[in-house]
Amino acid sequence: MASKLKQLTSKACQVSEFVAKHGNAYYKQVMEQNKQYVQDPPTIEKCNLLAKQLFYTRLASIPGRTEAFWKELEQVKSLWKNRQELKVEDAGIAALFGLECFAWFCAGEIAGRGFTITGYYV
């Protein structure tokens, strides 16, 4: 266990040295590549305006998303009505989708408990 800790410490030191040497250059490169997204001047008022624009734009997209949801629900209902004609592949895909949803739920529960399996902090 002590050797693993020593390796981890050594690796962490190497990473911090790398970031110290190359972090500034990486920052400048990223900012140069994405300068079209930077607002000038970078004021609090501009940030508040952008936050409001994002919020209300997302709010305006709700009717379109609800319409897509209802269309999808109608497709599922029609599949359920004609389930005798359902292919094994389609049933397998639906089962895998359900399993994936359940797995994401479990992962979310574990993350919500602080990444512990039992729910108790160690």
How would you characterize the overall build of this protein?
By secondary structure, the chain is mainly alpha-helical. Helices cover 77% and strands 0% of the residues. The chain contains four helices and no strands. It has helices at 2-33, 44-60, 62-81, 88-112. The longest helix is centred in the N-terminal third of the chain and has 32 residues, at 2-33. The chain is flat, with a radius of gyration of 25 Å. The two termini are 18 Å apart. The mean pLDDT is 88.
Low-confidence stretches: none
How would you sum up the global shape?
Answer: flat
Helix content: over 70%
- Backbone structural class: mainly alpha
Q: Please give the number of β-strands.
A: 0
* Series of H and E elements: HHHH
**What is the gyration radius calculated from CA atoms?**
25 Å
What is the overall pLDDT average?
Answer: 88
Largest sheet: none
Query: Beta-strand percentage?
Result: under 5%
State the end-to-end CA separation: 18 Å
